[in-house]
Amino acid sequence: MKPTDAPVPAPTFCQTAILKVASLCNLNCSYCYMYNLGDTTYRRQPKFMADDTVAWLLQRVQTHCQQHGLRQFRFIFHGGEPLLAPPQFYERFVAQARLQLTGVRVYFSVQSNGTLLTDAWCELLGRLRIDLSISVDGTPDAHDQFRRDHQGRGSYEAVRRGIELARRSAHLLAPPALMSVINVQADPVAVYEHLADLGMPYLDFALPDAHHGLLPTGLHHWRDMDRAPFADWLIRLFDRWMDDRPVRVSIRLFDQIMGLVLGIDNGFEYFGGRHNEFLIIETDGSIEPVGTLKACGDGFTKVGANVRTHDFDEALAVPLIQLYHLSHHQLAAACRACRVVEVCGGGFLPHRYSPERGFDNPSVYCHDLQRLIVHIQNRLLDALPAPARRATGLRRLRFESLYPQRPVLH
């Protein structure tokens, strides 16, 4: 990776551990980086995270918080499907974390496919103060196109039952957030209307896991980025969302871009210039960079670090983890020359990968991100009163003017 012209900030600390508490899943989503994009290391993982692994992990987190004076830390329970782990695991984990991490405000959340959710799970999550997020990809047809079980059956009805159960639950402290992977073959307005009608206050959209050696559906060659199908999809959804007053649902992707346009960096992995202060902990205690990098090759994220042998500072110094941590500062030359780089931050690190050049590329979604950012900035400026528009110092942009010449990928 070629360095940027500006000095690169040194790695600092980790404030979130994403825990792969189960290496199994009851669904078999075709786009899943864990099981279906070429990585097979899940086959060698323990099915569930063991108590001794948890003990090592909490010791590392405790030391890390003490060394860096951290006053808060978040654990995100992930998988596979985290609700395949027994309820007793969460009882023990949360109790021990709160007991051991004295002086640290500890937060917990779980990212689930929602199909296994029951009233008993809602009671447990509410009592332990664990926030819930559920994956759902829009309308039944759009969702079931990719999110199927191991028998090939669609999962929408089971997910919808889980969402409705969570919405009605008296146990949960807050309604679940919804996460949706973009399907450009689906109608974006129909997807938005359907998800907004579910009545949840928070929604986010994720680009499919892809890179220059593994192009997403809708892009058949990198030159197809001229068409920017993902930007076209998101722009239609954004315009419908902007016209909806009062706002029916907060969409994190749009909120972040609008904030960054106005100089407020609340970016999260995809955008902005902040450090990615996350570490992944596998069921065997392996410490890894973001799991989406598994799509770059079998064993790609196996960097030799483990909570049994490495503290978090040592893990953050591992080259691939460090690159992910600092990825919004380690940019390709084309990104450094771009006028919207302070908003997109070069995009999500795994999306930059190519087998020939590693991560020294713009995102495979580069032109989609550019076109979306330009549209949002212009739409935002149009919505501001003239004095406020002048105060921002922003001007309308044209997508065609962003590059003096096209970036070339080899």
TrEMBL record:
Organismal lineage: Bacteria, Pseudomonadati, Bacteroidota, Cytophagia, Cytophagales
Protein name: Radical SAM protein
Organism: Rudanella paleaurantiibacter
Co-factor(s): [4Fe-4S] cluster
KW rRNA processing (keyword) present: no
SUPFAM superfamilies: Radical SAM enzymes (SSF102114)
PANTHER family reported in the protein's UniProt record: ANAEROBIC SULFATASE-MATURATING ENZYME HOMOLOG ASLB-RELATED, RADICAL SAM DOMAIN PROTEIN
CDD domains to which the protein is assigned, alphabetical: Radical_SAM
InterPro entries given in the database record: Aldolase_TIM (IPR013785), rSAM (IPR007197), rSAM_sf (IPR058240), Sulphatase_maturase_rSAM (IPR023867)
Keywords, sorted A to Z: Iron, Iron-sulfur, Metal-binding, S-adenosyl-L-methionine
Superkingdom to which the source organism belongs: Bacteria
GO molecular-function terms, A-Z: iron-sulfur cluster binding; metal ion binding; oxidoreductase activity
Domain Radical SAM core: from-to ranges: 11-269
